[in-house]
User: What shape does this take?
Amino acid sequence: MQWGQIKTLFIICFLILDVFLIMQFMDSRESELGLLPRDSTNEEYLRLNVNGLDDLLDEVRRAPLITASRNNFSEEDLSTLDAIPNQEKIIINENIIFSKLITPVEINLADVDKGAPVESLQGKLLNSGNYTFWEKDEDTNIVILFQNMGLPIYFNKNGVVLIQLNDDDEMVSYIQTEMVEKNKSEEKVLGKAIDAVSTLYHNQGIIKSGDTVLDNELGYHNLVTSSDGEQVLNPTWRIKVENGNEEEQNYFVNGIEGHYYPREWNSFLEETITEFLEVVKLTTTDNIELLSVSEEEIDKAELIDEMIAQLTTTIGNNGVEK
Amino acid sequence: MKSETVKTVILACLIGLSFLLTLAIWNYQPNIEPNDDNEEAMEAIFTNGEQETKKNIVQPFNVIYHLEGNEHTGYADKSKEKQLYEQMQSWSLYDFNTDYSGEGLQKYDSPYVELIFPTELPADIIADVFTVDETTSLPNSSFDRIYVSLNKDISERQVIFKSAQSDITISANIQNPEDEINEVLNTYNSGEESPIDYIPYEVNNDQVVYLPNKVDMKELAFRYRIIPIEPLKTVLFTNPSNVISAEEIPKVERFTDGDREMIYYDEKYMEFTDMVNSDITEENLEGTELLDQTLKFINDHNGWTSEGKYEFVLSELNQSSKTVQFRRVYSGFPVYKSNELSVISVTWNNQNIYKYSRPLIQLDDAYQVNKKTLEDVDSIISTLENSPEYKSKTILDVALGYKLEEGEFDQYFKLTPTWFIKDYSGWSEFIPLDQKVGGVHNAMGSN
Assistant: This one.
């Protein structure tokens, strides 16, 4: 009888011990998930001061870093390109396509969202599905598409399509570059969109109290490109903010390390075209390949001059410099 | 009876469960990217490097005795200068006085000793480098020269800190001046070699520089070791496993994680830039803070890779550009060329490293010694005054130092004693009048 009571006592003791151990175990489990412990008071403060935070993506995202390099277009690419009708194409250094449309073609941008591929470009652009719409620059009438490797690659000269429209919004020419993936790291746990907003508000003071976050999206960005075009693309949050003066601006925050990218985005178009212009100026006729060019015997040197003239007017086009 | 059996089973289960849970908690390891573990654990320090103190890194480049009869002399053996400076660091200084007028506390009557530092130092560094009562408050000024009177009859203000650029002077008293000054004089007189004469020469802005005359210097050759760059990957990149490298052009390798880059030149030196941190902010850093955080940064990875007779000495502390530089000094003579191989430079922004460049070679002992005949001071002065090249330039400083260059076939490095001229673009080799200007420059440039 006494032994029975002791057993009951033991059962109760171990029951309590086990409950405690299970709680401990759960705790250590959870601490893994909250890799980046966030300051909840900071977040509350943020919610009180910045509008539009309820629409932020809330799930924990994972993404790899991508090592990419310039695509030197293969024979296959070139034959696909060659088959595109109504365009005279020039390929410089195997990696930049300049194309001129023989008769301008209308492209439909009316219902294309930012970050979505442009359906109407299918069959008019090499690998058109790999590029998504960024914006139309009203001053120069140039449409900017960013290459997309699962996520859009923001402001990268090596993965971009610039389409020149005429006054009737028809495509008259375009420039295209492409990157190929060389390597991919394992997937990394990224900071949430709200962390990016918090960086912009608390650390950088870029978002001010009363501003509204309009949009957030995950993409890729990087600052360093080696001369052979190889680069490491970092998962990056794009946070679009409307400030008190109703001006809208995109800000970029690294998704893994959480640092803000201080960069003058407005000059991207000008910089890119200037760089292409430099490439054209420095190239030799040996590095130029012509596809579907109508005239049989064309002077490549003359072609270069023509392209230089055209790019120069685009840059000089009052608009580019905002 | 039956209920007892049930209880036994329950108890056994509970005991078993508690065992399992205990084991599970003990063995539980959060799986935070296990692939990275090896790399994170990679040594983030130079195995051959060491740490430095502020006392040791702040040193004068020249120590000159101004004796009666307008005589300027100094030690033939530069290690004596260091000995003297260390002696001075142990003095107790008290009763600091600041004079803003620019008059009064200019200089002493000879004899006195002058210590010349290569860069302006904030006044509050005095408290770190010398022995000073903690309650002393120092003015918000700077200095690059220290004057110590050798006149035993002076009862106060034996030490003066002065900047060549401003009129502010700080003076202090020495505890037991007689003993301390006697000691200085003893150090001075104890030299076996006869002292070197310094010849004063006036450069830009009425500044006087002292040129050592008839110095016996030798050309030296060194074997060297490569300091591996690997630790820097861990120090400078947040996530070393994300870093890729590519050979930019032959012998030049670029490491990048997308936002930062480190360029490694021919296994000799490197330059790091954090592009994320490139926006210029208007934060204001005190000079001593700047030096402190730079020292901490380099100490943290044992970045002082000096050995034997050569060491790194603070050579620039620039508050406006937030840049701190340390120059290689061999036996008391600074190496003015080339900067890539002899200067450790750190630039800060937003409390983080913005740029870091440094040599990555470690010189062993000198194994070959040649005599080198240097131009004498008279011919230097006459060239500076007569050569069309130097006449048009603003000369800020003239000094004797070393030129460090690679020997033939990558086998060794060579230190050659050379005269250097400083203008607004920095230090450059002195070109004697009789040599054709262009040719010499180009030949040197290719190194």
Residues 66-183+266-316 of chain A form a domain with the TATA-Binding Protein fold (CATH 3.30.310.160). Residues 318-322 of chain A have pLDDT under 50 and may be disordered.
